[in-house]
UniProtKB/TrEMBL annotation:
<dbReference type="GO" id="GO:0008324">
    <property type="term" value="F:monoatomic cation transmembrane transporter activity"/>
</dbReference>
<dbReference type="GO" id="GO:0006813">
    <property type="term" value="P:potassium ion transport"/>
</dbReference>
<protein>
    <submittedName>
        <fullName>TrkA family potassium uptake protein</fullName>
    </submittedName>
</protein>
<feature type="domain" description="RCK N-terminal">
    <location>
        <begin position="6"/>
        <end position="122"/>
    </location>
</feature>
Length: 144
């Protein structure tokens, strides 16, 4: 695979969103560490990413032991468990990760993530809905 950047990224949560983020980052030549509590998902992704670890990302001591205090970018892809999502962002913020991205399931969830320390909050359904509307009307502004 072509290596264009040496920046490493941690992706937390290997659901549909996190899996797509992790896979795309690998394709773009980044080193990707992924963390998920689910053993089956860890096994599924083990040989597709740089490192895949089964751990609870809300546990800041465990995250420090994995070296996350030295990582530049984090993408928190936990959706339905809002508490886990928020506690993970808090742990990353406490470890001093300088670029934290987090997925929100709604506006209020996004607001909490911002206040907890996320630098970028993404709303995948809202963003994709908006994009589809542009595509349907033939504006295709994303591709200009
Ligand atoms: P999708 O991206 O598929 O829409 P989702 O929004 O439903 O996913 P979840 O299923 O809640 O998101 O979480 C995504 C992944 O995050 C799951 O694989 C889950 O095992 C993992 N996860 C949840 N809590 C933790 C945690 N505390 N530490 C690590 N991983 C976690």
């Amino acid at each position: 695979k072509p290596v264009t950047h040496s920046d490493s990224v941690v992706v937390i949560g290997l659901g549909r969103f996190g899996g797509a983020v992790a896979e795309s980052l690998m394709r773009l030549g980044h080193e990707v560490l992924a963390i998920d509590t689910n053993a089956e998902l860890v096994q599924k992704w083990a040989d597709r990413l740089t490192h895949v670890v089964q751990a609870d990302a809300t546990d800041s001591d465990a995250m420090r032991q994995l070296g996350l205090n030295h990582i530049e970018h984090a993408v928190v892809s936990i959706g339905s468990d809002i508490e886990a999502s928020v506690l993970t962002v808090l742990a990353l913020e406490e470890l001093g990760v300088p670029d934290i991205w987090a997925k929100a399931t709604g506006t209020r969830h996004g607001l909490i993530l911002e206040r907890t320390g996320a630098h970028h909050v993404v709303h995948p359904e809202a963003a994709m809905g908006e994009r589809v509307a542009h595509l349907v009307t033939g504006k295709m502004m994303d591709f200009l």
